Amino acid sequence: MPHWLQLMADSLVPLLWAGLVFTIPLTLLSFTFGLVLGLVTAIARLFGAAPFVAIARFYVWVIRGTPLLVQLFVIFYGLPSIGILLDAFPAALIGFTLNIGAYSSEIIRAVISSVPKGQWEAAYSIGMSWRQAMSRTILPQAGRVAVPPLSNTFISLVKDTSLAAAITVPELFQAAQRIVATTYEPLILYIEAALIYLALSSVLSALQVRLERRFARYGGMLEANA
Questions:
Q1: pLDDT at 150
Q2: Torsion angle, CA of 146/148/151/155, rounded to 10 degrees?
Q3: Which residues contact 125 (CB under 8 A, 6 or more apart)?
Q4: Residue 61: which domain range?
Q5: Which of 62, 87, 165, 198 has its CA 20 to 30 A from that of 97?
């Protein structure tokens, strides 16, 4: 077996393990928390009182206007200077959650705004409260439209988690860096890490297509019933 192939075979299990234990949980938790934060932020901007609108806009402005890597450094390396100490994984989780929350809030805000006002009026006409109209009428329609952009955000997050290596989270990319430090074979190891990210992204892209088709059929059924 060629040396490069043997090296890739030997390092495959440690890389996959790092991905399973750190990369995937970090991705899932960050996206889940970020989606909740994005929904709250979007609703605050659309329906909140002026102070909440200002806070939401400021949060989105700061997060979207600064690099994710800088945000991670501020949280992990900067906050200890004011007495806030965080382990690497929680620091990364907070950073990615805040980042996803800001970007997803813009998506959610746009899709909620795209729902025709007649849907609100129809919900109110049958006696629904604002909360009922939002949960039973508006969000289901907006969710169908939000699937493609939010799916793209999720796939991007899988790749962005490699930035967590910069704050010592032992995820997939840092596992590759550690192996490189002992083997002195950066090209082979980094290509292998890239191939694993590519495989994950490809699987998620295929799932995204299936999800979009399912929502498209669901939307078609709603229109037919209407």
A1: 95
A2: -140
A3: none
A4: 3-225
A5: 198
Judged by phi (left if over 0) then psi (alpha if -120 to 50, else beta), residue 67 lies in: beta
State pTM to two decimals: 0.91
Rounded Cα distance, 33 and 102, in Å:
11
For every residue of 112-159, DSSP letters joined together read HHHS-HHHHHHHHHTT--HHHHIIIIIHHHHHHHHHHHHHHHHHHHHH
Q: What totals of helices (H) and strands (E) does the chain contain, helices first?
A: 10, 0
Query: Is 50 exceeded by the pLDDT of residue 225?
Result: no
Higher pLDDT, 130 or 225: 130
> Residue 14 — φ and ψ, nearest 5°?
-60, -35
For the chain, give the number of residues: 226
The answer to whether residues 43 and 56 touch, using CB atoms and an 8 Å cutoff, is no
CATH classification of the domain holding 34 = 1.10.3720.10
H, E, C per residue of 148-180: HHHHHHHHHHHHHHHHHHHHCCCCHHHHHHHHH
How many domains in the chain? 1
Distance CA 188, CA 182 (A): 13
For residue 4, name the pLDDT band (cuts at 50, 70, 90).
confident
Distance CA 157, CA 150 (A): 10
32-73: pLDDT as tens digits: 999 999 999 999 999 999 999 999 999 999 999 999 999 999
Nearest to 174 by CA among 164, 184, 182: 164
